[in-house]
Amino acid sequence: MEKYLIINGIKVFFDNEKNILEVIRKAKIELPTFCYHSELSTYGSCRLCMVEVENMGIIPACSTPCSSGMVISTNTEKIINMRKIVIELLLANHDRDCTTCQKSQSCKLQTLARRFGIETVRFKNVTHKTDKDLSTYALVREQDKCVLCGDCVRFCDEIQSIGALGFVNRGSKSVVCPSFGKDLELSECVYCGQCSRVCPTGAITPRSEVRQVWKALSDKNKKVIVAIAPAVRAAIGEVFGLVNESGIRTAGKIVAALKNMGFYKVFDVSFTADMTIVEEANEFLERLKEDNIPLFTSCCPAWVKFVEQYYPEFIKNLSTCRSPQGMYGAVAKRIMPRVLGVKKEDLVVVSIMPCTAKKYEARRKELADNGEIDIDYVITTQELAMMIEESGLRFQELESYAFNMPLGFKTGAGVIFGTSGGVTEAVLRNVAGSMSDGQDESEQFSFVRGDNGIREATINLLGRELKIAIIYGLRNARQVLRELKTEKRKYDFVEVMACPGGCVGGAGQPVYNDLVTRQNRTKVLYENDKTLELHKPQDNPYVQKLYNDYLGGAPGSTKAHEYLHTHYKYKKRYKESVAISDNDNKGVEINVCFGNHCMKRGSKDILKHIVEYVESKKCKDKVNISASVCLEKCFSAPNVKVAGTTISKPSDKIIEEAVDKELK
Amino acid sequence: MKSNYEKFKSVCSILEHYSFDKSKLIPILQAIQEEYKYLPQEILAFISSALNISPAKVYGVATFYSHFSLTPKGKHIIRVCDGTACHVKKSSSIIEALREKLNLSESEMTTKDMLFTLETVACLGACGLAPVLVVDDKVYGQMTASKAVTLIEQIKG
């Protein structure tokens, strides 16, 4: 028997839709919501999706399961009035400086206020004008624009398993903020920025660097060079009403727009993506020889920070290759001055990314050259669109231009980097080597493509069976890491991207809320790959030339390591420590680690012994004992730090000696 | 007064008592508040690490319930009932008198000498005795402003 609902008098069939909201939307009725995202759990707080159901009264569509024969009205006078009041109340609580808001025109609250014809807000405005959180390069938080829908909180927790944001307080005092009300920088945030993507208003937005870039462009003594990431070309057209445009044409228009704005050279990050693959594939082969596997990709800075924070034991598995942006930075700042004949200090390097975490990555100390960062400014696809609009360029009508050489020439492998599975496919193409004539190299490994957050593939290559995993979403990554630890899973190569669908779904891209938009972007990249002449990164003649001229001739050379590799280190999540001594933090510092690993391995006994020993020696006032999480040496737990020196797995005697030494 | 070490030891025993079970977060926080008289930030961070939950979540729970306090409280806790019955019987005059006596305000609830904390509660469930106040779990019924002030002087000794 077919199941159906009657929506506004029209019969609509349904099958497995999880609630009546999904069926209503299937019937092409755009029921308003703030807190409903099909990928997240149902929360039911915004009360905008209320509908009238016969014999049931007014109920929220998002949390009502379907039952056949329901008679639903979505637009009765009662409901419309109710929605209007909800919006009016939200507006009373909202910083309504729309004209200066980043989210203007893509803000759901603004759209709904217009849709429902809100002409006046009858209630007094009660915003508090709290300061913006500008602690990170990636994101800006503005509490007064929050509607408390909790989308960010649930995304961070449910999809990314981070939980950097949470609800604080209750009732009218509720706010969403990082732990202890601190700035985002001090939280565990990995800067994936998906919170800003799901935020219906401007409460969390990517931090703009547009002003700085304009300033550099107007400086006559500076030459500004720029490169665009693969995923950017797949999405920017959406802002200008260009649908189904090919990646090559859009990229050409972007180049034209950037030249018009006054950029000196326009390059393609796909070129350095080709380099990344060549370098990473070389690392992979070496690791296979040494049996030092699995190799984790390291192109996604949010994923890298995730491993550094939560799984230090896997840091050694992260590829030491810089990401394509990292390689572009090194090449642009350290090699291009020689190629272009421009002084290094006169060069300003900009990159355009689909990502907010890339803003953070560019400032990582590990990527700096003697303390100087390579990339001066990172702007997102959204920011590029703003710059184009600001210049008054009619993007749709621009004629395509070609990228500048040499960093503008790429193979298809560098282009598909922007989607989940792309890095894996590119590495496989490189490892497999050339194919015999006539075969389509762009389809050789297409079986790694797909839409699931965890995908597996087994390939016979190099005379052995290679097991591969492709993951997006950090909760998925956490699950795989846990199972790798218990050896429930075993892989040779693991690709992880933090954002759903990979970089195409990044938080720097134009705001999207439906799967189809993201899938279209992926399609654009694969088509772009197909239409290029070359598909294997090792065939890129300019990559070869760059290696020959500046990078020691081949992947893995000393020079290549100096320029194209990096390192990672354990990043502490907690900065707090608990005072154990009662002497107001005076005296020789003794720090006992109470992190998870150490606690399981007896930090309590160590602390007990130290306290008793100090008491027996009657020198309680001369030491300052504290317990902290954690000392970042989990492999050799338990750990104690005496006057700055960490002692691992200490015996009672060793601790006593260390304390005695300091007390003398 | 307990030393920092003794308090920290009890935090560890509390965690062990609840087998590091994250679903027992609220009883754990209650037990810890019993020990410290409030929830120090560094202890909350430690709890979040030990139970493997994000600190934002622990902080969210700790700020949601008015029972939990994130600032140190005085030695004696005075709770004046301001529920409907007590309010009608002029509990607000008691609150005002105590604030004046202890030099406190709506935002500043603990005396500088850390001797008293003055709180208001919505209902103590003793409406028959209205207006009611509770000092350190001892209930005083049919209070007046002057009786309350005398009571404070007695406790101070």
Largest sheet of chain B: 4 strands, mixed
SS class of chain B: alpha+beta
In the CATH hierarchy, the architecture of the largest domain in chain B is: 3-Layer(aba) Sandwich
Arithmetic mean of pLDDT of chain A: 89
Largest sheet of chain A: 5 strands, mixed
Report on this model:
- The complex is a heterodimer of chains A (664) and B (157).
- Chain A has 22 helices and 22 strands.
- Chain A is an alpha/beta fold.
- Chain A has four domains: 3-75, Ubiquitin-like (UB roll) (Roll), CATH 3.10.20; 86-206, Alpha-Beta Plaits, CATH 3.30.70.20; 221-564, Fe-only Hydrogenase (Larger Subunit), Chain L, domain 3; 577-663, Glutaredoxin, CATH 3.40.30.
- In chain A, the strands form six sheets. Chain A has a five-stranded mixed beta sheet with strand order 2-1-5-3-4, with helices on one face.
- In chain A, strand 21 (639-642) and strand 22 (645-648) form a beta hairpin.
- With 157 residues, chain B is α+β, with helices and mostly antiparallel strands.
- Chain B has two domains: 4-64, Orthogonal Bundle (Arc Repressor Mutant, subunit A), CATH 1.10.10; 76-156, 3-Layer(aba) Sandwich (Glutaredoxin).
- In chain B, 48% of the residues lie in helices and 11% in strands.
- Chain B has helices at residues 4-17, 25-36, 41-51, 55-64, 84-88, 91-102, 145-156, and strands at residues 76-81, 116-121, 133-135, 138-140.
- A four-stranded mixed beta sheet of chain B has the order 2-1-3-4, with helices on one face.
- In chain B, helix 1 (4-17) runs antiparallel to helix 2, helix 3 packs across helix 4 (55-64) and helix 6 (91-102) runs parallel beside helix 7.
- Chain B is elongated.
- Chain A binds chain B through residues 157, 162-170, 177-181, 187-188, 573-574, 576-582, 594-596, 599, 604, 607-608, 611, 625, 627, 629-630, and chain B through 3-5, 8-9, 12, 40-46, 48-50, 52-60, 63-66.
